Amino acid sequence: MSDIRPDLVAGLSLHEVTALMDLSSRISLASGEVLFGMGSEASTLYLVERGRIALTLPMQVCGREEDVLVEERTPGQTVGWSALIPPYRFTLKATAPLETNVLAFTRSSLLEYFGTCPVVGYIVTRNVASVIGQRLQVFQAMWLREMQRLVELRCA
Fold first, then answer.
1. Does any domain span residue 69?
2. CATH number, domain with residue 84
C-alpha cells in the first residue's frame, strides 16, 4: 500500500504487515459501485488502497429512500469491521464515489492467521476497536446535533 500505513496494521512489524497483506485480494470498484449493503452478511474486511468509500445510512426521506452520508474512508483506512464483530452484519452501506481499489481480507483467513499468530490477532483486533470507536464518535456527534435541533425547536 505505497507509503500509507494502514490503520489496521498500526503497531505491527514490516514482516507481520507483509504476512497479513499476503492474505488479501485486490478488488477494483467502478464509480458508483456498491461494496456492500447495510444488513448484508459481513464475511470480508477491507482496506481502502486507492480512491474513497462512502459509508451511508439508507433512510426514507420525503417518501423515497436516500443514502445519508455518515463518513468517507480514504486510502489506508479500514472498512467493514463488522466482518470481525458478531453478528457479522454490515451496519452501513459502502459505495465507491469514484474508481477505488480495496484490499479484501476474508474473516476465515484472518481468524486462521490470528490462531497461528495471536499477538498479531491482538494488535489487529485492538486496531479494529479503534475504528469502531471512531465510528461511535461520529454517530454521537450526529445524534447530539439532532438532539440540539429538537430542543431548540421545542424552545422556539
1. yes
2. 2.60.120.10
